[in-house]
Amino acid sequence: MTPLTTADDNALKAIMTGAQPVVLYLHDGTDNYKPTSDAVRKLAKKHSDDITFASVNLTDNPTAAAKYGNLKLPALMTFEKKLFGMREKSASEETRPADVRAHVAFLLGEGEDPAIAAANKVKAEAATAGTKDVSERTFKRDVLKSKVPVLVDFWAPWCGPCQQVSPVIEQLGEEYAGKVQVVKINVDDNPSLSRKYNIMSIPTVMVFKDGTKVDSTVGAQSKGKYQKMLENALL
Predict the structure, then answer these.
(1) Which residues, at least 6 apart from 155, have a Cβ–Cβ distance to it below 8 Å?
(2) Which residues make Cβ contacts (< 8 Å) with residue 215, sequence separation at least 6?
(3) Dmax (CA) of the chain
(4) What does pTM read for this prediction?
(5) Annotated catalytic, 152?
(6) Active site residue 159
(7) Concatenated DSSP letters for 156-197?
(8) 178's torsion region: left (phi>0), alpha (psi -120 to 50) or beta?
(9) Backbone dihedral angles phi then psi of residue 79, each to the nearest 5 degrees
(10) Is 101 within 8 Å of 40 (Cβ atoms)?
C-alpha cells in the first residue's frame, strides 16, 4: 500500500469508505510546512499497514475545501472506523511535527487525547501564572538566568503605593504567562539586592532580559506603563 496517498475530491470519497482508520493531512500545496509534511510522510511509511494516510491540497479540491477550509493550515484530522462509517477522532490546526505524532499515537490507541493534553497544559500554565516571590538566594536562577524577560517588583508590605500597584502586577503575571516571568522582591527581607540595584524608593519596577536590566521605573505607575516595558522587552 502507498504510504501517503495524494487524494483529490474523488479519491477522498473512496478513502473515507475504506476499512482502515484515516489520517487526512490538509494543506495548500505550498512548501511552507516542510517539517510537518516530513513528519506525516515518515509516520505514513511506518504505519501504512494500519492507517490510510491521505494528503489533500485544499487549493485544488473545492469539495474538500468547502468541508475543511475553515481549519488553519496545515491541519490534520484523524478518523476511526465504526460500524456505520468513519467517525472523526481528533483534529489539529497549525499542525507541528509533535502534533502529528501525538494524533497518530492517539488514533492507534497508544497515546493521550491531544485535546485533553492541550487542556491540561493550559491548566498547568494557569496554575503557575501570576507572580512569584524571589529572594537573594533565588534571584540569579529566577531572574538573571531566566529564558524569558522578567518584570521585578521591589516592594514592602508597609508601602501604600506598593499595595496600590500589586493587583496590576498580579494581572500582568497572568496575562503574560508563558511569555514573561513576573516576580516580587520584599526589600526588607532582601537588603543586599536592594543595595545592589540602588533601590531608594518603592515600588521600583525593573525589567530584565538575558540577565541584564533593560528598563526601570520608580513609583506607582499605570498598567499601560508596565505593559509597554514588557512589550519592549519582548521585541
Answers:
(1) 162, 166, 184, 185, 186, 187, 202, 203
(2) 206, 207, 229, 232, 233
(3) 74
(4) 0.58
(5) no
(6) yes
(7) -TT-HHHHHHHHHHHHHHHHTBTTBEEEEEETTT-HHHHHHT
(8) left
(9) -135, 140
(10) no
- Of 162, 165, 183, 206, the catalytic one is 162
Neighbours of 6 (CB within 10 A): 11
Amino acid at site 223:
K
Annotated active-site residue in 159, 169, 202, 220: 159
Contact 66, 125 (CB under 8 A): no
β-bridge mates for residue 218, sequence order = 204
Q: What is the CA radius of gyration of the chain?
A: 25
Per-residue pLDDT of the chain (235 residues; tens, 9 = 90+): 568 899 999 999 999 999 999 999 999 999 899 999 999 999 999 999 999 999 999 999 999 999 998 999 999 999 999 988 899 999 999 999 999 999 999 999 999 999 998 887 766 655 555 688 999 999 999 999 999 999 999 999 999 999 999 999 999 998 898 889 999 999 999 999 999 999 999 999 999 999 999 999 999 999 999 999 999 999 8
